[in-house]
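Write out this protein's structure.
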Amino acid sequence: MKRILIVGAGGQIGSELTPYLRAIYGEANVVATDVRECKALAETGPFEVLDALNPTNMASVVARHRIDTIFNLVALLSAVGERNPQMAWGVNMGALLNSLEVARQHHCAVFTPSSIGAFGPSSPKDGTPQDTIMQPTTIYGICKVTGELLGNYYAHKYGLDTRSIRFPGIISNKTLPGGGTTDYAVEIYYEAIRHGRYTCAVPHDVYMDMIYMPDALKAVVELMEADPARLRHRNSFNIASMSFTPEIIAAEIRRHIPTFEMTYDVDPVKDEISRSWPNYLDDSCAREEWGWKPDWDLARTTEDMLAAVRRKLEAEK
């Protein structure tokens, strides 16, 4: 049975990955940490406040809980990162380097998410290959490419088991996003239920890959459980589920809410970022090497999201 440490457990992925892993591996075997108290995570298993930029404290947690697998989920996202690129570099790379170093010292495996943001305007837009030119134009993307290379280095230099996924934009009905370019694909469902209209900050015609959170969680576990002998790529795998523009998702919502209205107030930063990213990824390597296959498409995701958000907002009244 794995003994897992989740660093950055209070974020969008971590807040849902923690209970998902606890259901699989046992509550006592998944230690959640974050820079702040997280009452919900502390109620269902071990939790500690941990600054991921403090390697001594991270090593102490690993040793005390006999950790063998570290999930590093700490990151400042794309739009937020552009407002303070120096901080984004310090946080994103500092947490990753500390995770890798502690893992090296304590013989742990490491998972850390990469992103479609690792690609840039010079990457092929359609069917973006697993192995291609990667020259991102955001500090977030630069951190992700550097992180992939650093993970590969630790695997080659020290024999560390490092694995990673290039996530599309993640759609969740439980946790609100935290400053990414793909946030609109979550916000739109909330505003459709609350007000029947939404003002989108991303251009109407830009395609971006997305994934529903249940598929994202499934992918993480499947990759970490995969036979290492089958993995030719570790840092990092393309995965894909659905790709759409704001107009396409709005049309899907109108199948359930015919009066839904969409307007645009395009944010220049998100405009530049979104146009630099792929339209859709080629995830054939993930399918071949560890059996990746998504369960959720846009139609099914929209139906589930609207129902879940409606229940959530009703419960908050």
